[in-house]
């Protein structure tokens, strides 16, 4: 499977998992991904895919209703610029997925055989 | 390994922040989750065009059409199904508001906000708001229409709560990190208890007692009279003009020290029982209503205008609705979120509205108890009677007990310990009543007489109910329970609680209530003024009446216009004219002229008089002179009533403790009245000296605060605002500093804080086809991000009204005006 397709599917998995069970399934999906994937960049990609998955859902929300108004109000309430909230909405799943994938990541077979330590790229 | 360790720590931290509140931040996971969190919640405020849902409890399908103003038109086959559907849609729009208001009455806000809310919770429970509501529910006939309606309504509310998706959770619950509780029928009664607290817990006696302690009983009674010196009553007195009693006031007498003690006791009681904050002085909470008979209407049909003023909040205190049950009722208007049915509105035959009567319906009794610390019994007619005790437990958001109180009740009501004495309070709110049945029975009324009959046994809060019908009848009655008392009949003393002879002897007969039907003048109006001229009916009903300035203005407008149009009815609601300004400005100008003529005037006084003389006495946003008048009036009250400043009181007297402006007008007729004398000077001032000095001081004060008289800082739009706070007082969810037309004592009065005002404006023309217009400051949705949260605010600010859609059937509604259709069907159970 091409890496880009794998990446899109992973992003989809994060979106579906969030839509279904809830936000807390993001680290679960990422942990499974980290454990089973042989992708060299599986930890980084988990973070990016989670951000992409939530970004897609956010775009759907934007298309459906007054998300901008909500962001402006929350920004005023929390005393932060509006873009911070959007950024946080992407960073939060990205970091969750990255950290979960990093925790469960197994050393690459090639590295295992060579005895070198695994990197978190 | 290091990276894995960092990742593990990061994961733990993120999961913690995701699940748990960190500082002021709510849990981030459910907040930011784009499928179920705030973003999805904002998206969910846009309804889908067509929706079908099965909800438990429905007997037959119900069709709900939401129009483009967000108003649900509910077409049901039975009353109860209509109320179930209403509960469902109101909860969908206003769930957080509904729960907040009932928690405020029940004294359980601390379960959300912790100990910060404890003082207000304690006050609510000390007042027995929940106790009264629960007693009423327990006494309710369970087969009555009202009881069945609140049960059906709660089923509808709970259907929404149970069918809510995570994304539907209102944002306030997310911020508080809590979930909505189940809605119980008693919650509707909690809300009505709280409304009674807003409208019918007052004690004008305090002001009188305070004055009595300084200037003696005779002067105090004259300064705070039971009867208004300007009579423009709700029940027309046949004079066709205001009646004035402008005899001079008795001179200040010797201080009455016993009154000082009583005042202290009573003030302590109110401070312990009341809301905490003092109500604003004047008529900031001033409602208006009027109706014209066909003979005075340009269209030849009766017309009615409703303009209730309440605390302004977002979401609005009102929710607009239209309920249709063929053969039963077809009613539209506004109701309270949390209470089934239309409270102010119209049907195919009648329209009605209310203003607050403000009568004296609560009294205090000094009780004799068996133990001053922890009493279990109280004495009545020489025998000991057990006190009813209710242990009030306050919990925080984690369910931990943060405080407990024991509230004790005599047969009169809850007891409070104030300055070592135990005082109980009797209040009409505590009486058995069936207000919900009363309100619901208005919907099918077919004429004014049926409407009046439906409100015949209404108890509290007392209201001036105005009704007009399609046959051209107009009628008004000050409805509610007016207690009759022994002795003088007045409830302005602390009574002896140890004898039953102090108790209320009954209630005023309905036949003695202020009432008028189809008066010769062709119109009726009310503005919280004394409802009946004591020359016609001397029964004591209270003494805390608003000054009749608004009534004078309404009646003047109606008298001037022989044929009133619907648009005039609308414009009157925000009319910037002021009977108060009309009465006082000439005195200021005349005083300045006289002072100048006698050589006592100076340049500043001349400038002030010239500036005031430029004013057209209209409180429009562009006016630069309304502020000057208000500043001068403030000075006038302070300088005139210096006798009411207690020795050693350097802070002055708060405005709410001073006599009403009509008392100033009364003594203004007497140039040499002793009340004009400024006691701090050796000279003996007269009226003109005080008016002139007040004008000059008000002018100087304004220049000091705002700059030159030509400055834009003098613009009324910069000075007077409506401030509409969100229920949690979150600025981002509020609408603040809205420049409004109107000032003190205009038809759209605005108080200093701007937190009270016109909560619903309505005009109804009762022709062959009903035409109605209305607006309130806010929108139908309670979701701050929703387009319908405050979409009506700009039109409210400008005094405009929306045409209210009133289709007979669901097919009659113009498709272009339909926002959403909701088909509710019975769920299999």
- The N- to C-terminal Cα distance of chain A equals 20 Å
Q: Hey, roughly how much beta strand do the residues of chain A contain?
A: under 5%
- How many helices of chain A in DSSP terms? 6
CA radius of gyration of chain B is 28 Å
Mean pLDDT of chain B: 93
Q: Count the E strands of chain B.
A: 34
What would you call the quaternary organization? heterodimer
Helical content band of chain A: over 70%
Computed Rg of chain A: 16 Å
Describe the structure.
The complex is a heterodimer of chains A (about 120) and B (about 850). Helix content of chain A is about 75%, strand content about 0%. Chain A is elongated, with a radius of gyration of 16 Å. The C terminus of chain A is likely disordered. Chain A is mainly alpha-helical. Chain B has 23 helices and 34 strands. In chain B, the strands form eight sheets. Chain B has an eleven-stranded mixed beta sheet with strand order 1-34-2-3-10-11-12-13-21-22-26, with helices on one face. In chain B, strands 27-6-7-31-32-33 form a six-stranded antiparallel beta sheet. In chain B, strand 15 and strand 16 form a beta hairpin. The N and C termini of chain B lie far apart (about 55 Å). The chains are: A mainly alpha (about 120), B alpha+beta (about 850). Chains A and B meet through helix 1, helix 3, helix 4 and helix 5 of A and helix 1, helix 2 and helix 3 of B.
List keywords for this structure.
heterodimer, A: 121 residues, mainly alpha, 0% strand, B: 34 strands, 20% strand
List the topology elements.
The complex is a heterodimer of chains A (121) and B (829).
Chain A: H1 3-19, H2 25-36, H3 42-64, H4 67-78, H5 82-104, H6 109-114
Helix pairs in contact in A: 1-2, 1-3, 2-3, 2-5, 3-5, 4-5
Chain B: H1 2-19, H2 28-32, H3 38-44, E1 50-55, E2 62-67, E3 72-75, H4 79-106, H5 110-113, H6 118-126, H7 129-139, H8 145-163, H9 171-176, H10 186-200, H11 205-223, E4 230-231, E5 243-244, H12 257-273, E6 288-292, E7 303-307, E8 309-311, E9 313-314, E10 319-325, E11 329-335, E12 344-346, E13 350-356, E14 362-367, E15 377-380, E16 383-386, E17 388-395, E18 401-409, E19 414-418, E20 421-427, H13 435-440, H14 448-454, E21 463-469, E22 474-479, E23 483-484, E24 494-496, E25 506-507, E26 515-517, E27 523-526, H15 549-560, H16 566-573, H17 579-597, H18 603-613, H19 626-640, H20 661-668, H21 687-706, H22 716-719, E28 721-726, E29 735-739, E30 756-758, E31 761-766, E32 770-775, H23 793-797, E33 802-803, E34 818-826
Parallel strand pairs in B: 1-34, 3-10, 9-28, 14-24
Antiparallel strand pairs in B: 2-3, 2-34, 4-5, 6-7, 6-27, 7-31, 8-30, 10-11, 11-12, 12-13, 13-21, 14-20, 15-16, 17-18, 18-19, 19-20, 21-22, 22-26, 23-25, 28-29, 31-32, 32-33
Helix pairs in contact in B: 4-8, 4-10, 7-10, 11-12, 17-18, 17-20, 17-21, 18-21, 19-21
């Amino acid at each position: 499977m091409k890496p880009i397709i794998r990446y899109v599917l992973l992003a989809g998995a994060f979106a579906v998992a969030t839509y279904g069970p809830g936000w807390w399934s993001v680290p679960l999906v990422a942990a499974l991904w980290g454990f089973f994937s042989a992708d060299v960049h599986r930890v980084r990609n988990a973070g990016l895919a989670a951000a992409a998955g939530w970004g897609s859902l956010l775009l759907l929300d934007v298309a459906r209703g007054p998300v901008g108004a909500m962001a402006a109000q929350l920004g005023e309430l929390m005393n932060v610029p509006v873009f911070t909230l959007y950024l946080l909405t992407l960073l939060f799943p990205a970091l969750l997925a990255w950290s979960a994938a990093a925790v469960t990541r197994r050393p690459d077979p090639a590295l295992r055989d060579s005895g070198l330590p695994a990197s978190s790229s | 390994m290091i990276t894995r360790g960092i990742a593990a720590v990061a994961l733990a931290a993120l999961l913690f922040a995701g699940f748990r509140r960190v500082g002021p931040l709510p849990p981030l996971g459910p907040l930011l989750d784009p499928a179920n969190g705030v973003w999805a919640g904002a998206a969910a405020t846009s309804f889908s065009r067509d929706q079908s849902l099965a909800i438990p409890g429905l007997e037959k399908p119900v069709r709900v059409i939401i129009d483009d103003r967000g108003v649900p038109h509910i077409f049901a086959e039975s009353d109860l199904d209509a109320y179930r559907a209403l509960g469902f849609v109101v909860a969908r729009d206003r769930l957080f508001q509904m729960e907040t208001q009932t928690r405020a009455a029940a004294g359980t806000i601390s379960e959300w906000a912790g100990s910060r809310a404890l003082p207000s919770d304690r006050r609510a429970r000390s007042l027995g708001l929940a106790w009264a509501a629960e007693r009423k529910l327990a006494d309710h006939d369970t087969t009555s229409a009202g009881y069945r309606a609140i049960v059906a309504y709660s089923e509808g509310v709970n259907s929404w709560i149970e069918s809510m998706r995570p994304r539907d959770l209102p944002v306030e619950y997310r911020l508080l990190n809590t979930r909505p509780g189940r809605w119980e029928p008693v919650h509707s009664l909690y809300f009505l208890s709280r409304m009674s607290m807003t409208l019918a817990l007052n004690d004008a006696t305090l002001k009188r007692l305070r004055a009595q302690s300084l200037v003696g009983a005779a002067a105090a009674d004259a300064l705070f009279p039971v009867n208004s010196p300007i009579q423009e009553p709700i029940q027309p007195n046949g004079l066709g003009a205001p009646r004035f009693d402008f005899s001079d006031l008795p001179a200040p007498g010797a201080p009455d020290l016993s009154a000082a003690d009583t005042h202290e006791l009573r003030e302590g009681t109110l401070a312990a029982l009341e809301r905490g904050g003092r109500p604003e002085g004047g008529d900031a909470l001033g409602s208006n209503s009027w109706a014209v008979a066909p003979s005075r209407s340009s269209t030849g049909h009766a017309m009615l205008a409703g303009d209730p003023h309440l605390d302004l909040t977002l979401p609005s205190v009102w929710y607009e609705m239209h309920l249709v049950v063929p053969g039963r009722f077809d009613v539209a208007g506004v109701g309270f979120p949390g209470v089934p049915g239309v409270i102010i509105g119209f049907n195919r035959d009648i329209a009605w509205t209310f203003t607050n009567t403000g009568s004296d319906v609560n009294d205090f009794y000094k009780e004799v108890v068996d133990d001053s610390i922890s009493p279990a019994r109280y004495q009545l007619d020489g025998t000991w009677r057990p006190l009813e005790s209710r242990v009030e437990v306050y919990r925080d958001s984690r369910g931990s007990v943060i405080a407990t109180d024991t509230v004790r009740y005599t047969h009169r009501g809850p007891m409070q310990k104030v300055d070592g004495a135990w005082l109980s309070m009797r209040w009409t709110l505590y009486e058995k009543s069936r207000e919900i049945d009363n309100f619901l029975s208005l919907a099918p009324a077919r004429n004014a007489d049926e409407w009046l009959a439906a409100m015949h046994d209404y108890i509290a809060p007392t209201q001036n109910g105005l009704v007009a019908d399609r046959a051209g009848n107009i009628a008004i009655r000050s409805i509610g329970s007016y207690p009759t008392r022994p002795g003088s009949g007045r409830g302005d003393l602390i009574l002896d609680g140890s004898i039953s002879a102090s108790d209320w002897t009954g209630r005023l007969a309905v036949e003695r209530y202020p009432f008028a039907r189809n008066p010769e003048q062709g119109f009726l109006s009310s503005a919280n003024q004394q409802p009946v001229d004591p020359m016609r009916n001397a029964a004591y009903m209270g003494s805390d009446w608003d000054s009749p300035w608004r009534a004078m203005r309404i009646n003047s407008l109606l008298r001037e216009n022989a044929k009133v149009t619907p648009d005039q009815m609308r414009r009157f609601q925000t009319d910037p004219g002021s009977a108060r300004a009309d009465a006082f400005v000439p005195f200021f100008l005349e005083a300045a002229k006289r002072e100048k003529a006698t050589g006592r005037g100076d340049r500043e006084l001349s400038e002030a008089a010239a500036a005031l003389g430029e004013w057209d006495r209209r409180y429009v946003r562009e006016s630069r002179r309304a502020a000057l008048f208000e500043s001068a009036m403030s000075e006038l009250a302070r300088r005139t009533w210096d006798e009411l400043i207690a020795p050693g009181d350097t802070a002055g007297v708060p405005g709410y403790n001073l006599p009403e402006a009509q008392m100033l007008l009364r003594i203004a007729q007497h140039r040499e009245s002793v009340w004009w004398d400024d006691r701090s000077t050796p000279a003996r001032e007269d009226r003109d000296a005080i008016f002139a000095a007040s004008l000059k001081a008000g002018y100087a004060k304004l220049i000091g605060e705002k700059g030159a008289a030509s400055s834009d800082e003098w613009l009324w739009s910069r000075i007077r605002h409506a401030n509409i706070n969100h229920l949690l007082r979150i600025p981002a969810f509020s609408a603040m500093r809205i420049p409004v037309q109107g000032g003190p004592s205009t038809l759209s009065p605005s108080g200093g804080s701007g937190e009270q005002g016109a909560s619903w404006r309505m005009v109804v023309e009762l022709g062959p086809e009903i035409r109605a217009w209305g607006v309130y400051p806010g929108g139908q949705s309670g979701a701050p991000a929703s387009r319908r949260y405050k979409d009506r605010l700009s039109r409210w600010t400008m005094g405009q009204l929306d045409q209210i859609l009133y289709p007979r059937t669901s097919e009659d509604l113009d498709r272009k005006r339909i926002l959403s259709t909701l088909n509710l069907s019975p769920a299999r159970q």
